[in-house]
Every structure is written in structure tokens, then in C-alpha cells.
């Protein structure tokens, strides 16, 4: 009975193909054509600076999706000289946990860049968000490919998915498959860069669209 209840409460996973819709370079409404792909759209950007309170910026360009499209709200975290303190973590976790209800989505993705010194902050933050949203919201995070080594700092994170990003890596040439098992089932790519040969273990691909900027 407990196992059956857990299955009923588990979050519905995204489809195999997800399209990322980030901050647009224009303000006009974007009309997405019907397809089997889901939509992972930037809903909010959050900024951390010093010890200041969190600054929230909502998506600035309208996005119209076909009915029945799988919808994932993406939140982006930026920082500049942030102290990554407990007050910022508490406020950020609360604001992020509110996003699925605000956007009426069944999935949430957190996108961030983290210096090594901030890894404990982000591990705790992801745990806070998971506890706040519960198991019925699919929780995804993006990751730099360089974080996906055998002894990854992301080990033990209470997420449904980790999406390593294989684009804009500069001189880094990190190719899949990656050593960390949790980084082997999903991948992020861009239509603006040369295609990456993905292994059979990758079951879900997130693709940046041409008119998006990140």
C-alpha cells in the first residue's frame, strides 16, 4: 500500500524532448507550434548580491503554448559578490518553491552557476526547495559538465533529474558519457552549436531555441 501511494504521489516526468525558452531578445509574444516536445520556460530570475535580500525578476516576454503542452518553469539564479548566507537561502528557497503554483506548472528546474565555495549553499537550497514542494512536483537542476565527475559535489541531491549542459563550454571539451551516474540520463544542447553525440543512456534532451539567449 505504501509503495502504491508513493507511485501515485510521484511527479509526472517530462517527455523525451524538451525545448528551452529563455529570455527573449524581443518583447513580442512568441507563439509555439504544437509538437510532442515539452516546454521549459524561464519564469523568474533571482539575483543575490552581498548580504542583500533576494531580487526577483519575472519573465519579460510572453510565451503562448499549445494546449496540453508539458510545462516546466525554470528559475535562474545569478550572483555578484554574494555571501550565500542563511537568510538569502531561506528567502530564495521560499520564492522558488512558490513558482510552480504561480506558473501553474507540474515541473520546476533550477539553473545556476556555483563557485566551489557556494556548493554547500546550493546543496542546502535544493534540499529546502524539495521539502517545500513535495514529491508531486518534478524537480530538475542544470549542471556544468565539469561538475559531473565521479566524485561530484551533487551526490545525494534530492532531485528527479540533473541536466548537464553541452554548449558554451569555451575551451572545455567534455564529452558524454559523464562519470557521475546522475548526469547520464539527460542532456542540454543548443541548436546554435555543433551537435554532440549523445550516448544511449540519455533519455531526455533539452534544446535551446535560436531566438533565446541565456
Short summary:
By secondary structure, the protein is of the alpha/beta class. It has a single domain (2-213), classed as Alpha-Beta Barrel (TIM Barrel).
User: Which homologous superfamily in CATH is the superfamily?
Assistant: Glycosidases
Write down the Rg: 17 Å
Number of strands: 13
Biggest pleated sheet: 9 strands, mixed
Structure explained in plain terms:
The chain has 214 residues and is an alpha/beta fold. The chain has one domain (2-213): TIM Barrel. The protein has three helices and 13 strands; from the N terminus they run αβββββββαβαβββββ. It has helices spanning 2-9, 86-103, 119-133; strands at 17-21, 23-24, 30-31, 38-49, 55-58, 63-64, 71-80, 107-112, 138-144, 161-165, 186-190, 204-208, 212-213. Strands 1, 4, 5, 7, 8, 9, 10, 11 and 12 form a nine-stranded mixed beta sheet that branches. A two-stranded antiparallel sheet has the order 2-13. A two-stranded parallel ribbon has the order 3-6. β7, α2 (86-103) and β8 form a beta-alpha-beta unit. The termini are far apart. The model is unreliable at 1-9 (pLDDT under 50).
Amino acid at each position: 500500500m505504501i509503495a502504491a501511494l508513493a507511485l501515485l504521489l510521484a511527479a509526472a516526468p517530462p517527455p523525451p524532448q524538451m525545448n528551452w525558452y529563455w529570455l527573449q531578445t524581443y518583447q513580442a509574444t512568441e507563439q509555439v507550434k504544437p509538437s510532442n516536445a515539452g516546454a521549459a520556460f524561464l519564469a523568474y530570475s533571482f539575483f543575490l548580491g552581498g548580504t542583500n535580500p533576494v531580487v526577483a525578476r519575472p519573465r519579460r516576454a510572453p510565451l503562448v503554448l499549445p494546449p496540453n503542452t508539458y510545462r516546466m518553469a525554470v528559475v535562474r539564479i545569478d550572483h555578484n559578490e554574494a555571501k550565500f548566507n542563511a537568510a538569502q537561502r531561506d528567502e530564495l528557497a521560499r520564492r522558488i518553491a512558490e513558482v510552480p503554483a504561480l506558473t501553474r506548472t507540474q515541473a520546476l528546474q533550477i539553473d545556476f552557476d556555483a563557485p566551489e565555495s557556494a556548493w554547500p549553499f546550493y546543496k542546502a537550497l535544493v534540499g529546502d526547495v524539495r521539502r517545500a514542494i513535495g514529491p508531486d512536483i518534478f524537480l530538475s537542476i542544470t549542471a556544468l559538465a565539469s561538475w559531473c565527475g565521479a566524485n561530484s559535489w551533487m551526490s545525494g541531491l534530492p532531485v528527479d533529474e540533473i541536466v548537464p549542459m553541452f554548449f558554451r563550454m569555451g575551451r572545455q571539451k567534455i564529452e558524454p558519457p559523464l562519470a557521475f551516474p546522475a548526469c547520464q540520463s539527460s542532456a542540454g544542447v543548443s541548436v546554435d552549436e555543433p551537435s554532440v553525440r549523445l550516448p544511449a543512456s540519455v533519455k531526455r534532451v533539452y534544446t535551446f531555441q535560436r531566438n533565446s539567449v541565456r
